[in-house]
Write a structure and sequence with these properties.
Alkaline Phosphatase, subunit A, 2 domains, 7-stranded mixed β-sheet, alpha/beta
Length: 369
């Protein structure tokens, strides 16, 4: 049996990152987590949080030694499922998926599967209102400068997790740092900056590929530039939404013979959720455990909630309803196919499960001097 890494809570992990910076800067009356303080946190006049999509703690160890040594910090847990939409929303709202309700990359809502990353549903129907799906106001009501790719401005996911922020779109990595510098020089106490391309490169080529190595060099260049160009006594914080693991072609598993009892497949390959016909959950769980107990953790919905994987003992009814009746968290090297997402297996690296490479992300800080 592989070791699980327990997910974040409101007080420790990804949900406490940005909220703590806002509280420590005096913009929130409360909500900062003392467990999140790093050695030089108290010396910073301003702060920027670089959210590097896909930067697991294991990948941080591959960065240039002089850069790694410049930063103080450790790993923290991300949320479950360890996926972009859930973790980014937890970062900006300061609460776990069991509270904000975005529990998976694909979710069944009112009988339709919502792709939260694209904010689309199958067919020609309109996607649901992002504010109805995710009702928690981001940033605690503070108007935080958001430095993120220009192409994402106005998207459904952006409305769900970044509304209320002041959006500064960027086109190039150099432009990203310049946008951050401009916001800080204008007096912003805290800036949120998002970089998506390490995740995208690892998905396409693999965590251990040359292409991913080059992309890590790009992230390092961003951090070097930030250290060189941001105002004195800026605290540069680095975190991520999740890590990734490679899955070879032979690691993809199917259970087509159970489709007569499975109405919908949601989640993603490494955290597959099965919505089953009424009364069929026990039979599906037994069949999956008999076949895949050496490949995955297999939960019923109730067990998933009771074990705390939504991050809270009191999740919202909406969050619970969006989980599958049966949930499979893949062990390293495996993923579960969905008949409605056949292109997913073309990707090399994946995330979603509760293994260390996916769940452990950096929480780092250096002070510009």
């Amino acid at each position: 049996m592989y070791e699980q890494v327990m997910c974040a809570t409101d007080d420790y992990g990804v949900p406490a990152t940005l909220r703590s910076l806002l509280a420590w800067s005096g913009q929130l009356p409360r909500g900062g987590s003392e467990r999140m303080r790093l050695a030089q946190s108290g010396a910073a006049k301003q702060a920027v949080l670089f959210m590097i999509d896909g930067l697991g703690w294991d990948q941080w160890q591959k960065f240039p030694p002089d850069l790694v040594e410049r930063f103080d910090g450790t790993w923290i847990p991300t949320v479950s499922a360890s996926t972009t939409v859930a973790a980014l929303t937890s970062c900006t709202t300061g609460v776990v998926p069991g509270t904000h309700g975005i529990v998976a990359s694909d979710m069944l809502i009112a009988g339709r599967t919502l792709s939260a990353i694209r904010w689309k549903v199958p067919g020609k129907g309109a996607a649901p209102d992002p504010l109805a799906i995710q009702p928690i106001g981001p940033f605690g009501g503070v108007s935080v400068p958001v430095v993120s790719p220009a192409v994402y401005e106005g998207s459904g996911l952006t409305k769900a997790h970044l509304r209320g922020g002041r959006y500064f779109g960027w086109e190039t990595p150099y432009g990203m740092v310049e946008r951050v510098r401009g916001a800080l020089c204008s007096g912003a106490p805290v800036v949120y900056a998002y970089y998506p391309f390490l995740d995208r490169t690892c998905h396409g080529f693999g965590v251990h590929s040359i292409e991913a190595s080059v992309e890590r060099e790009q992230v390092a260049a961003i951090l070097y530039r930030a250290i060189d160009q941001l105002p004195e006594r800026t605290g540069i914080y680095v975190t991520a939404d999740h890590g990734l693991v490679d899955v070879a072609a032979q690691g993809w598993l199917r259970f087509d013979d159970l489709d007569r009892m499975i109405l919908h497949h949601t989640g993603e390959g490494r955290m597959r959720m099965c919505h089953v016909a009424p009364g069929a959950a026990d039979e599906v769980v037994q069949a999956l455990r008999a076949r895949f107990s050496d490949c995955a953790w297999i939960w019923t919905r109730d067990a998933f909630v009771e074990e705390g994987w939504l991050g809270t003992a009191t999740p919202s009814a909406a969050a619970v309803s969006r989980l599958g009746d049966v949930i499979l968290g893949a062990f390293p090297g495996y993923a579960f196919e969905s008949p409605t997402s056949p292109r997913e297996r073309r990707l090399v690296a994946h995330h979603g499960s509760v293994t260390a490479p996916e769940m452990q992300v950096p929480w780092l800080m250096t002070l510009v001097s």
